């Protein structure tokens, strides 16, 4: 029996076991399998593990998407979570090349995936409060927001949760060093039904202000001279 003789339901079930690249490759073999690849039912969940994956054409974004995860764990990605004033020229160049990758992708999600229920971001050092605000506004059914080691996230995201996270039930802001205890307390007071977790966030050293950075740079130069 040839694979194309299977009915639509069986083909969708088969495709569901394949990764994005395998689905794309299989869809290029015939028109029937291409139609299965393009079926929204196949794309309710998306997981990404590198910046390159976000720019490929081996997946579909649409109203069927409910669960989205973008988790970067490579050593290179960790560079983006270092304060800018501490980066060398190579690290700055690497960050500049994909600074807007996740933000642009999430903007696309805001425009095309209004039924999103869960968003997980880990190691996304360039994602900003404005980006999360747009997600909360455009995805009113969002129930779970998990942010880990997203260093540009501040109390503005927590404020956005209190204003636009009416459906939210789970909020994680782990290892987000620019979030404060005061911001967390506001969420607890205004959104008592939200399960809030903030491992290490309010206890980490926040990014230094520009004048403090300058002082640290001068002190560092003196140490080198000594």
Automatic annotation (TrEMBL):
SUPFAM superfamilies hit by this protein: F-box domain, RNI-like
InterPro entries in the record: F-box-like_dom_sf, F-box_LRR-repeat, Leu-rich_rpt_Cys-con_subtyp, LRR_dom_sf
Keywords noted in UniProt: Ubl conjugation pathway
Keyword Amino-acid biosynthesis: no
SMART domains hit by this protein: LRR_CC (SM00367)
GO cellular component: cytoplasm
Gene3D superfamilies: 1.20.1280.50, Ribonuclease Inhibitor
Protein name: FXL22 protein
Organism: Myiagra hebetior
Organismal lineage: Eukaryota, Metazoa, Chordata, Craniata, Vertebrata
Encoding gene, per UniProt annotation: Fbxl22
